[in-house]
Design a protein that fits this description.
This protein is α/β, with parallel strands linked by helices. 56% of the residues lie in helices and 10% in strands.
Length: 526
């Protein structure tokens, strides 16, 4: 099989180490640019800042359009009669009038038949647990059982850790015993600790479970192309139409092994209970995931995602050498199939928890750790460049170049945009207090910020529309608090977005790798 693994620390070349340092070099250089320019020319600094902010203003306008479009599509997809639509796909006939694209799909199947029919599909759900309580894990299983789908075509695996606490092991076994009759197959699988070559993380856990299930599926005589594997965290609660929508989309694919399927991750399970700052961050992340569905060319595996078993076997499942195995899996599959791989959006939510730990200070810390782990996806940059340009001759170079450019720009913006948007206008006047252009720049920028507030209003409105029912323990004044929380948006983007990204990138620069998956603690308010 092709080598699609991240090199061990001891085998990384000088080129690879330079590429690991590149994200930090780019981010810190961009942050230093206004300061350096201010020493040379205040007018040049002003032009740089205005150009940068105008670019972001235009991008923000486009984002506002996409979030509205994505929101509407998501709302529609949650209401479709997927069961009848799946039956139409099975029979190659059209009985469901709406949506209009359904009829087009049925017609296309007549000339471009899919590899798998709906009646042949089997779902395998792998739920990764570590130290979560029953209050966290059990609702995930119950939400799956409530799906508008035949549970006798669904397999459940609870993948738990030997290194985890004893109660977690007992919980996994108890839940399987209690709910196994609802599924076609259910099992708790223990991931051994201290396996050589593995970082401590989710990747090793779900990969171990996947390899065991590969053998079991062979005994059951299932074609790997029949089996769709969805990975779930312990707090993930799929919408009741997720399995049906995934089945429908999957059964339209002539070659499904070349496809990853990405639902919309929404952090709303406990949104009423989380502290205000965490609610702002969770809502922002939820809407960013909606926006990504409107940009299929930039979608990557994130958190909960699905692939067929054939593709997972071909890639030897997920990476056990990184703590960001979800996003990294896109690149593993991309290089395994020489660039013939893409991600399809599933416009159905999988609901997750906002960060909520025991105590406010601990919650703040856990939030930073979670975002830092996501930002550690910058470690994919050296992997993609070396695998794509240095080790592969038959890759689609233009597609690869565009993907690398988006990957690098995404991490660069993640680390720098909040800081530059907030503070860059004040840098020229700090170093050149007598310069007219430097003094006028903050006023000009303030007008741009005011117009950009329209996007915040849109986000606030849609955030209220997306809220689950308010728990009875909260009074009406909680709604006012949910509105005022948006005053924390600048604080959240600077402290958590930029600082977490810069922390991850600087760690890569220094070689102080994150080689342990810091599990986000989950607490439940009753």
């Amino acid at each position: 099989m092709k080598n699609i693994e991240i090199p061990f620390k001891s085998t990384k070349s000088k080129t690879y180490r330079f590429l690991e340092r590149l994200p930090a070099i780019m981010s810190w250089s961009l942050l230093a640019t206004p300061i350096i320019l201010s020493q040379i020319s205040p007018k040049a600094t002003a032009l740089f800042v205005l150009a940068y902010l105008l670019v972001w203003f235009i991008r923000a306008a486009a984002v506002n359009v996409r979030v509205i479009q994505g929101w509407r599509i998501t709302q529609h997809h949650q209401k479709y009669n997927w069961t009848s639509m799946i039956q139409d796909v099975q029979n190659r006939t059209k009985t469901v009038k709406n949506p209009k694209w359904h009829a087009q799909n049925i017609e296309r199947l007549k000339t471009q038949p899919a590899l798998v029919k709906p009646e042949e599909v089997v779902h395998l759900l792998i739920v990764a647990v570590y130290n979560e309580s029953r209050d966290i894990v059990e609702p995930t299983i119950k939400s799956v059982i409530k799906s508008n789908f035949d549970m006798k075509k669904v397999m459940l695996v609870i993948a738990y850790e030997e290194r985890g606490p004893e109660y977690s092991r007992n919980l996994a076994k108890d839940l399987v015993k209690e709910y196994k009759d609802h599924f076609m197959f259910a099992e708790a699988i223990e991931h051994p600790k201290d396996i050589p070559g593995e970082v401590i993380g989710k990747g090793g856990n779900i990969t171990h479970a996947g390899r065991i299930m590969q053998k079991k599926l062979e005994i059951m005589k299932y074609d790997p192309n029949q089996v769709i594997v969805t990975t779930l965290d312990s707090d993930n609660r799929p919408h009741k139409n997720y399995l049906a929508a995934l089945t429908y989309t999957y059964c339209l694919c002539p070659e499904p092994k070349y496809i990853s399927f990405q639902p919309i991750v929404m952090y709303t399970n406990n949104i009423w209970d989380a502290p205000a700052l965490m609610r702002v961050i969770a809502t922002g992340n939820s809407f960013w995931n909606i926006i990504l569905t409107m940009r299929p060319h930039v979608i990557r595996n994130f958190s909960s995602h699905a692939q067929n078993m054939r593709a997972l076997i071909d890639t030897d499942f997920w990476s056990v050498r990184t703590i960001v195995e979800d996003g990294h899996q896109f690149w593993r599959t991309y290089f395994r199939y020489d660039g013939k791989h893409e991600a399809y959006p599933i416009y159905i939510p999988i609901y997750q928890d906002a960060v909520l730990a025991e105590g406010y200070r601990r919650t703040l810390r856990m939030q930073f750790i979670q975002i830092r782990r996501w930002a550690y996806g910058a470690s994919d940059i050296p992997f993609v460049i070396t695998k794509g340009f240095l080790n592969r001759k038959n890759m689609p170079k233009f597609d690869l170049f565009s993907k690398i450019a988006r990957l690098m720009e995404g991490h660069l913006s993640w680390a720098t945009a909040p800081l530059l948007i907030t503070f860059s206008a004040f840098i020229p006047v700090l170093f050149n207090p007598e310069d007219i252009a430097a003094n006028q720049l903050p006023n000009i920028v303030s007008y741009i910020h005011r117009v950009a507030m329209i996007g915040l209003i849109i986000t606030m409105f849609l955030s209220f529309k997306s809220l689950p029912p308010k728990p009875e323990r909260y009074k009406r004044h909680r709604n006012v608090i949910m509105l005022l929380q948006w005053l924390m948006l600048p604080l959240s983007t600077i402290i958590y977005s930029s600082s977490a990204a810069l922390n991850s990138q600087t760690r890569l620069f220094l070689g102080k790798y994150l080689d342990k998956f810091d599990v986000t603690e989950k607490a439940v308010k009753k």
